[in-house]
Specification:
Strand content of chain A: under 5%
Distance between the termini of chain B: 75 Å
Distance between the termini of chain A: 31 Å
Helix content of chain B: 25-40%
Number of strands of chain A: 0
Structural class of chain A: mainly alpha
Largest sheet of chain A: none
CATH superfamily of chain A: MetI-like
Shape of chain A: elongated
CATH superfamily of the largest domain in chain B: Dipeptide-binding Protein, Domain 3
Oligomer: heterodimer
Number of domains of chain A: 1
Shape of chain B: globular
CATH topology of chain A: MetI-like fold
Helix content of chain A: 55-70%
């Protein structure tokens, strides 16, 4: 065996040991990251809650218990009643108590996960699509196109994101759909800048030059060669962005511009109970915890993905 | 020597003559602003050409420097209660002139005769008042009084418990027990002199359909709303007025809660079901509506049960009030707190000739009855009239009275002079804080302006009441009318002439208070053609509520 052959053999072994591809390496690194796994568990929990909401929730989230059997007296903001913890059996069980309209808080928090996840995923998806396109075009286009697009993005970035979202919803009108659009719009510049930065570095790569030499058109080069290689940071940013989008949706609903009553949305539930923190703390505790778990989950996963996909960070 | 004496005598004669003529020169300082205004011997009179303009007042005359006479077009049994209301606070005529009758120079810089004078209005933060040491009555206990505000009841309670404020208004519905159980605080419930109602505009579809309005009246379970969402001392409303207001109809039969009847009425309405409607409200806590969002959602659920799908739309407070007044809202939640304890303040203000367009087209038969009620002095006749009015309101389902909300103030335990006024006009002058030299009251919101002739919000009126006096006033913590800038008053037998004898008082700017100030303070509100009829928004809503019509209202 010559030394050259031995080197090739060693490289093959190393490749096999490391898993062969960047994605596989990243996956292995990711599953070794305990924080990221904890984040995945939290997200999994929330996703399961959202998917199985009708099975988990004991009541219709909009059903008021006023006048129903097992519900006597003043129900607004009634504390949790758990039979296993000594709540009288003649009283209906409510794990998280009742809200101010006498609705089951547990059911509302469970169904609220659907709203938050939909807004989080959908707004980030919209942001990534539009932002990436703008960034790709900007990075690969002429000076003027690049300037117009990026200066527009700078203008959007100059506003605090929540203030801009409030302004957009004020124009569009309150509602979950408009809140989703507003959150998507305010996050577009983040993805546009990221995508542009990727294009600026990738367009100088040898394989791009090779494609140009072979006569590939700009669109083909942009969408077949550059975009796939620019996706990694966008995905990482998108995962972190979901956490931000969930928070922004909750904030918009908290001030009455997002989900409209009686939609069970965590920010709206929190807002309704904010004046009862002294007498009925469960009204703010449970939706607050739900928001925290979701945001924490996506942040941990986002950090884990970044660590795994960034070759400078996953040198372990 | 003789010459000198002669010259001296001549000089004295000239000086004496000038002195005697001085008042005449001073009289000339007041110029008539409109044809309805006359100045005679320095005394101002303002008079309508006739009573055809539709208002209550025919003339206001300063008959002496300390006497004002009101001539009415029709008897008004509640006239003393009306002139005690804070929208009729007296400011110096010179100040009204200097400010052009409006603008920030007036509504951010009031000059009154009250126990406190405005010291500073830090926009968005607080209003600071300083004791008026030249006050004609008993001086305020504390040298400084401060108004602060936040719309969050939990934040108000938090501030009180932290000791950064001395009094909070509108304790949260869920916090009554918390305050009662805290030995460092005292809870003072306020009588429920208010009404929360669901309003409908009979010019906006589908509320132009009587069946729909009646169906909604049947579909709302008022008892459930009061039991579940209102604090103690609240009661279900079976008519527009609360029981403690004169004119309340004993044994009145309200539209019963009957969802089945509601469904039948909707089916008979000829409209496509389910109905899709929008309910508007402002997310502002008031004694009559302590939990607006919660109540709105329960009404939404109750109406959904009979086949009406309701979309809830929260509006900014001022925009909501403007839209409701202009008759732009089909279905809305609003309320009313007593300004003075008489049926006219509730019924005339909402269903009378001077009412705004919030319920759409007015009902002439109701207006006739209300005119009859307000011009009759016999109590039993008035009660009979108001019973008929209540029945007409119910039968036409003009709006649905829901609740009379109990509310409360919370004080630090050591505050003396603590009281809860049924009219929400707590006097800071009688309160004292043993811990420091000020009294700080935290209320729901910031005043829009402190020229209360052109304000309707209680947050503004309460501040005005500390600064400006009216001819008469309401007793502290009560509703009885007591003398204020008028030491005494009397009326003619026919109830058409009211004479007020004024006391000596000094405005905060050092000028003397006199009858001309009273005439002009009223006239600039009354006469729409007066160049000083400007105000903040120019609406002067309370004038028409109190006295039915403006003088010289433009045809448009």
């Amino acid at each position: 065996m010559t030394s050259q052959t031995a080197k090739i053999e060693l490289d093959k072994q190393t490749e096999v040991r490391l898993g062969g591809s960047l994605w596989r390496q990243a996956f292995r690194h990711f599953i070794r990251n305990r924080s990221a796994i904890a984040g995945m568990i939290l997200i999994g929990f929330v996703v399961f809650m959202a998917g199985a909401a009708p099975l988990i929730a004991p009541y219709d989230p909009n059903l008021s218990m006023i006048g129903l059997p097992g519900h006597e007296g003043r129900l607004a903001g009634q504390a949790p009643c758990i039979h296993a913890l000594g709540c009288p059996p003649e009283m209906a069980q409510h794990l998280m108590g009742l809200d101010l309209n006498g609705r089951d808080m547990f059911s509302r928090v469970v169904f609220g996960s659907r709203v938050s996840l939909v807004v989080g995923f959908a707004s980030v998806f919209l942001s990534i699509i539009v932002g990436s396109l703008l960034g790709l075009v900007s990075g690969y286009s002429s000076f003027w196109t690049d300037n117009v697009i990026m200066r527009s993005m700078d203008v959007l970035l100059a506003f605090p994101s929540l203030i801009l979202a409030i302004a957009i919803v004020t124009v569009l009108g309150p509602g979950l759909q408009n809140a989703l659009i507003a959150i998507a719009i305010v996050n577009i510049p983040v993805y546009a800048r990221l995508a542009r930065a990727q294009v600026l570095s990738l367009r100088e790569m040898d394989y791009v030059l090779a494609a140009q030499s072979l006569g590939d058109g700009n669109n083909r080069i942009l969408f077949m060669h550059i975009m796939p290689n620019a996706l990694t940071p966008l995905i990482v940013q998108g995962t972190l962005g979901i956490a931000g989008a969930v928070l922004e949706a909750a904030a918009l609903s908290f001030i009455g511009l997002g989900a409209q009553p009686p939609t069970p949305e965590w920010g709206a539930i929190l807002s309704e109970g904010r004046n009862y923190i002294f007498t009925s703390p469960h009204l703010v505790f449970f939706p607050g915890i739900a928001i925290m778990i979701t945001v924490l989950g996506f942040n941990l996963v986002g950090d884990g993905l970044r660590d795994s996909l960034d070759p400078r960070l996953n040198k372990t | 020597m003789k010459r000198v004496l002669r010259l001296f005598a001549l000089t004295m004669i000239v000086v004496l003559a000038l002195g005697l003529m001085a008042p005449a020169f001073a009289q000339d300082a007041i110029e008539p602003l409109t044809p309805n205004m006359t100045v005679t011997d320095g005394l101002v009179a303002y008079a309508a050409d006739s009573c055809d303009y539709g208002g209550v007042i025919q003339s206001i005359t300063a008959t002496a420097a300390n006497q004002v006479v009101f001539q009415l077009c029709e008897p008004d049994g509640a006239f003393p209660q009306k002139v005690a209301f804070s929208s009729l606070g007296i400011q110096p005529y010179e100040h009204l002139q200097a400010t052009g009758g409006g603008g920030e120079a007036l509504f951010r810089n009031p000059v009154g005769t009250g126990p406190y004078a405005l010291s500073a209005w830090n926009l968005g933060s607080d209003v600071v008042l300083t004791r008026n040491d030249a006050y004609w009555g008993e001086l305020a206990n504390e040298p400084t009084a401060i108004f602060r505000w936040t719309s969050e009841s939990a934040a108000r309670l938090n501030e009180l418990m932290a000791g950064t404020v001395d009094v909070i208004d509108n304790v949260g519905a869920g916090d009554f027990e918390t305050v009662s159980a805290n030995p460092a605080l005292q809870l003072l419930p306020r009588p429920a002199l208010n009404v929360f109602y669901v309003g409908m505009n009979n010019t906006i579809a589908p509320f132009d359909n009587l069946n729909v309005r009646q169906a909604i009246a049947h579909a709302i379970d008022k008892n459930r709303l009061v039991e579940q969402f209102y604090p103690p001392a609240s009661t279900t409303a079976n008519q527009f007025m609360p029981p403690d207001i004169f004119g309340w109809t004993e044994g009145f039969e309200d539209t019963p809660y009957d969802p089945e009847a509601a469904r039948q009425l909707l089916a008979d309405s000829g409209l496509e079901l389910p109905l899709e409607v929008t309910i508007n409200y402002r997310d502002v806590v008031r004694g009559y509506l302590p939990q607006p969002g919660v109540v709105a959602q329960d009404i939404q659920a109750q109406l959904a049960d009979v086949g009406i799908n309701v979309t809830i739309e929260v509006m900014e407070s001022a925009a909501f009030l403007d839209a409701a007044s202009a008759g732009q809202l089909g279905l809305f939640m609003l309320g009313w707190g007593a300004d003075y304890p008489d049926a006219t303040n509730f019924l005339d203000a909402h269903f009378g000739q001077g009412a705004n367009d919030s319920f759409g087209t007015k009902y002439p038969e109701i207006i006739d009855l209300l005119n009859q009620g307000s011009t009759t002095s016999d109590p039993q006749t008035r009660l009979d009239v108001y019973a008929q009015v209540n029945a007409l309101i119910r039968d036409n389902a003009i709006m649905i009275p829901v609740a009379h909300g109990g509310s409360a103030l919370a004080y630090k335990a050591g505050i003396t002079g603590a009281h809860a006024s049924p009219l929400s006009n707590e006097s800071l002058a009688v309160m004292a804080d043993p811990d420091d030299d000020n009294i700080i009251l935290m209320q729901n919101g910031e005043p829009g302006g402190i020229y209360c002739a052109d304000e309707t919000d209680g947050e503004a009126l309460r501040v005005c009441e500390q600064i400006m006096d009216t001819l008469l006033a309401y007793e502290v913590g009560g509703t009885a009318v007591v003398p204020s800038l008028a030491e005494s008053f009397s009326s003619s037998e026919d109830g058409l002439t009211w004479t007020f004898d004024l006391r000596d008082a000094t405005f905060h700017d050092g000028s003397a208070f006199d009858a001309n100030d009273v005439v002009m303070a009223y006239a600039v509100q009354w006469d729409a053609a007066n160049p000083l009829h400007v105000g903040r928004s120019g609406a002067f809503d309370y004038w028409t509520i109190l006295f039915k019509a403006f003088l010289n209202t433009p045809a448009s």
